[in-house]
Structures are given as structure tokens and as C-alpha cells.
Amino acid sequence: MYITHLECPKCGSVFNHSEVVQLCKKCSAPLLARYDLKKIKKRFCTKKLKYRSYNLWRYKEFLPIENEKNIVSLGEVVTPLLKLKNFGKRLGFKRLYLKDEGLNPGGSFKSRGAAVGISKAKELGVKGFVMPTNGNAGAAWAIYAAKAGIKANIIMPKDAPLITRNECAASGAKLYLVNGLISDAGKIAAKAVKKYALMDASTLKEPYRIEGKKTMGFEIIEQFGWKVPDVILYPTGGGVGLIGIYKSLLELRETGVIDTFPRLVAVQAQNCAPIVKAYENGEKESVFWENAKTVAFGITVPKALGDFLVLEAVYKTNGTAVSVSDEAILEYQALLAKNEGLFICPEGAATAAAAHKLLKEGWIKEYEKVVLLNTGSGLKYPDTIQANFSLLSPDDEINL
Amino acid sequence: MYITHLECPKCGSVFNHSEVVQLCKKCSAPLLARYDLKKIKKRFCTKKLKYRSYNLWRYKEFLPIENEKNIVSLGEVVTPLLKLKNFGKRLGFKRLYLKDEGLNPGGSFKSRGAAVGISKAKELGVKGFVMPTNGNAGAAWAIYAAKAGIKANIIMPKDAPLITRNECAASGAKLYLVNGLISDAGKIAAKAVKKYALMDASTLKEPYRIEGKKTMGFEIIEQFGWKVPDVILYPTGGGVGLIGIYKSLLELRETGVIDTFPRLVAVQAQNCAPIVKAYENGEKESVFWENAKTVAFGITVPKALGDFLVLEAVYKTNGTAVSVSDEAILEYQALLAKNEGLFICPEGAATAAAAHKLLKEGWIKEYEKVVLLNTGSGLKYPDTIQANFSLLSPDDEINL
Fold it and tell me: Does the model's ipTM exceed the 0.85 cut?
């Protein structure tokens, strides 16, 4: 395998990838896994992939697992990239696509981070971890931990999607609900890490979740025949997916597979938009967002540890950051279901609302190839839809 | 393409596949699609599949769509076949597998029937249909119909899983809830079909749903390297999946791909087991089951139209039919989550309970290759798990 070390993107410090390392020991920034990209460039060929299993492990040169026997899999698939013909036409796009991460095990893109994160934890001999989460990440890490025989301690806001509680509990994780936000869960987790010497699986406090998330980038590029689309819109809470996609682009450029980048767009909810605010002010970091609250619960992150990396990805790709209202999120969620049969999560729907806004503003052109990243299935958010129905008795007839 | 006609498996009558045909016009039995298998045998080669898209459409020679532009897709994937190492070891199996249909669009195996059924309906110019359902099939047909622009009328028992209501409503279907069972919904649907000249999409009353379901059989055989496993256990309500898998085996044998069959097991719930009762009495058809009620709601089917085909599949493959209690279903559902990180539906869990029962009885040997067919994701059944948790305030600590 080709992983060589962990590196701090802020101060450049280097750490050993064969030990459990969390944040940079010098400046407390998140660490990134580094690979011998020159060697990969010599040996990697996209044609080879035809003969590999059709899931994220096909990009093994760019993944940190050194012994394949440590791979913990729940049947990850290459998620579909769907052309939205009906919806796109209605909005005025000629080439609008949706990457549907709802088809991952557990129904969300969090499985990618968990698959690689738990596999690497197993490789490093980790026995237990603690994780603050808005729900889906905790559920994903809990199910993969069950398979691996690693002990999971999950802390989530009491308002997190109900189903994610059940996933954690069913898979044998120890579950805590906090009367607050993910930032409060994070504080409790930090105390537990100190007290019990557990691995800290908080967003970006362990370096391998991002390696799983970056496979979304590899898949999108491969699904376009190893060409890049013009724009990718991503619903941004902690932002790991966006950081991961940007990392995949850098690695694919470095290894000679691509030579241009899509413009990356960070999409947030109007009532929790710290990254958008920082972008609009030209800042490199964000400020804690007070009184955060949105129907897109998964992106309710008042201050992301990796905010500077998200902003870098946006700036360096000539992207942008844009916020949308809760009303728009629910409206576009309904439109996608009615026009495309796609029942997606509110976070994913936020990218549809944002894409339309950017099209109307002229930032996106109608002929551009645009990818909406839907991070999860609407099945996990049953309460965002109210079903109208007629109640019948067995002897009734229906009237159209 | 290779479809030649529709045939009645009871009286042998032949019908034109280029028209909308429902049941046999002579004896009212379900119709089966027939293909020119001799021609397929000459031209089909499993090696060809390497270059095809990784979803059910890769078996296009065996599917009824004549023009690929009619394919309606929501991003179907080849669902994973997972080896259950932890759970298998615990129960005493050496080679226990689970085919996880929860990764289909909409979270259930019903998508396969809907993908092929709606595509063929589009090809035939169908504008609208009515369907009685236990929830998941209606949801699947509603989302594919939305994509195709076909009008869906869905009738389900009011006790069907709540989320399936939302999927129907979100995708623009007209939704009716009946204060009764699927058999009551079926009667209402039959009246609507007559009154409004709608297509009847009831189980086996249209011949193409089964063509989609049979791709589970193709996938399982391909995933074992074009070899057959020893046993496949299937949760049986209407039984279309089992009929479909048996049909796939017959077609693969006829085209020279396989020469032996797995033993097919129809699994039912103790409180709704008409097929098991018929099997135990050596009958060819089942009798309506009074007061049917089980936690595995999807298989609450008191009398299946295709019961004779299910029983034929079981008899001809030296299979069996077995029922399990609701307590066992919930117990094995929990065991699978804790040991394998798989949060599956109660129907799927029934096959795990049945497999263990058959192992203990000696009907299955410990070294045999056994496949559990999980028909859907546990995400659609949030109430089958009760989550235990501790409630914390932001200033609290956790104690392990």
C-alpha cells in the first residue's frame, strides 16, 4: 500500500500512521493522510479498475488500509449518479445530476467514513471509541463497529433523527442523548476521551473518516468517464465530504488522472451558515453561529473544526458558498420526489435549492454539468413529509 | 431482445406481450413471460457481463424491455451478498450469507419489480394503475411511476409501515388506507380496475413484476461465480420473489449456465402461514388464513394468488416451507444487528430464525452454503427496536 504518513495542513508536522494519532500535537489542527503519489502515478491505471469489486475499496491505492484482511464491510456500493431529466428541465438545467448516497448501508454517506475509519481502527488495534454526532455518523460508526467487534459510545443531541438512535442501540453501542447541540455533545465526548483513554472519533479528530468520504470524489469522476463535471454542490455541516472531495481531486491531479477541477459549492441552511458568512467576508475561518436551527438537522454545525479546509476547497476551485431557507429545502425535497421519484433527505434537498438559486443568479450556466450531492435517504426523515390519504372500509370504492 | 410471448402456467394459453394483458383470459391464473432461450443460449456468455453496468439491467437478455430507452431507473445496484462470519459462527454455520436488498432505491427488494414493471408499462403506453399493497411495493411503484410520469393509485392497510405512506404521497401517488388487510385492499382495487379501466398492478396480476424479482436469482448465482448455493431462504408473503428466483434458475439451466438447483425455502410467520400449512399437507395450493397478524407485516398475506407457483418451486427444488414465531423474528433481528451491524427488516430476520431452526433439525448441514434473503432495510421499521439511552445535560460527564 501507498500511505506514508499523517501531516498537519496548518503547521506541516508529520506523524506516524501506524499509531493512533488524533489532532496535530503541535497546533491541534486536523491531520491528513499522505500517500506516495509519485509511486501511485507510475503504477495506477484507471483501466485496472474494470476488474475490481464495484465499491469504494476499488480505489485501494488511495486508501490507508495496509492489510486487506482488516477491511470491515457492510456491502458498500458505488452509489448511483442519476441524470435529473424531469427536474432539470423544469428548473432550466440541461445537465443536472444527483449522486444518491442514500443507497449506502445505513442509508447515508456517513457509511463511507465509517467503513474506512473503523477498518483503520481495527488495523491499529483500537478497542473502543467515543463520538459526538448529529445522528447519521453515530449510526454508521455504530453498525460498522458492531461488525468489527469494537465498542462504540455515541453522544447525540436529543433532537437528532429518531431512527439513528435505534440504529445505535440495535448494534450494541452505548447511547447518550444530550439536551443541546452537537457542540455540547463534543464537549462531553472530550471529557470522556481524557477520562477513559478512548479513541476520539469526533469529526476530523481522527484522520481516516475523510479518507472514506473522499471516495465520493473518485466515484463521481469515474462515473463521468474520468472527466470532471463543472460544479459539485455539497450540503455542509462539518464539511468532511467537501474536504474529502477536494482531497480526491488533488490526488487525482497529482497522479495524472485529471487536470482541471469542478467548482465546489458549500451549501448551508440560512439559520446555520457560518461557512457562508466567512466566505462572504473573505475569511479563512468561520465564527461560532449562535442559535443554530434548521430542518436539515445533519448540517446544524455552529462551528466546524475543518472550516478552514472547507473554505480552502471553495476558494481554490473558484467555488462559492450559499445558504438556503428551510422553506426552500422542503419545497425542493417535494419537487424532487414528485418529478424524479427521489425521496431524499433535507440536507440533500438544500443543494437542489442552492443550484436553482445559482442558476438564476447566472453563477451556474444552463449547459454546465452540475452534480447535487444527496447525503442520505429520506427514509431517515419520515416527519418531513405529511401524507394525504383517504381512509376506506373494506366495502368501499375509490373515486378518481 | 428475446421475449416471445406470455404464457399461462396452468392451462398453457399464449398471449401477446406487446399488449397490456393481466391474468390468463381462460383460467385467470398469473401469466409468465417467455423468452427464446435457445437463441439466448447461443448468444449469451457470462463473460460479456464484465463490460455491463452493475445493476439488474445487465441481464437484459432475460428481461422483457424491447427498447432500452423505455428503461426507468432510480439507480438500482447489484445488492451485496455478505458473509455472516460472526453470526454464522454463533449459530453453527460455516458458510452463511445474507443478500441485502435494503440497499435498493426505496430500501426494499420491491424496487426490482417496480423498475421492470414500470419500464414495461411505459413501453406499453400505460398511463395509470391501481395497486393493493402491504406498503413497500406500493412505495416502490409510486416512486418509479413518478419518474416515468405514470399515475399511481395505491391502496394499503392502515397498519402498513408509516414511512411507505410518505413515500407514496411524496411522489405524487393517490393514496388510500383501508381498515383491513391486503386482501381487502385487493377487492377495492379490483372494483377500481373495472370502473376506470386502469392497469391492475396487484401481485401477479401483471406479468412483469416477477421478471424484475427474478434478477435476485441471477445476482446470487453470479455473486457465487456462476455456481449455485445449497439453500436459499425467502420470506414469503405473495411469494413473487421465490417464484422469480425459481424462474431464474430454470432459465439459467435452459441456457446452459447452471445444472443444479439450490433448495428453496419458503419462510412464513406462525400467525400467517398458509403456504407452510399447504406444504405440510402435501397440497398444491393454500387455503385463506383467518386472523392473520405478524410483526413481519410485509408477509401478512392470507392467500397468495401465486401460491401454487411458490409450492411448485419448493417441491421441485427439494426445498421446504417453515414458519417462525414473532418472538423469534425480533430475537434474530436483534442478533443480526449486534453481531453483524445489519439493521434489517423483520421479514428478513424471519429467514435467519428459520435457518437456525432447520440447522438444529438437521435439514441444513453446517458446511452448506446458505443464503438468507433480506428483503428490506430496518430503517423502514423504526418501531421494532426500542433504544435505551442516558439523557445528559451539556455539563454532564459519561460514566462507562
Answer: yes
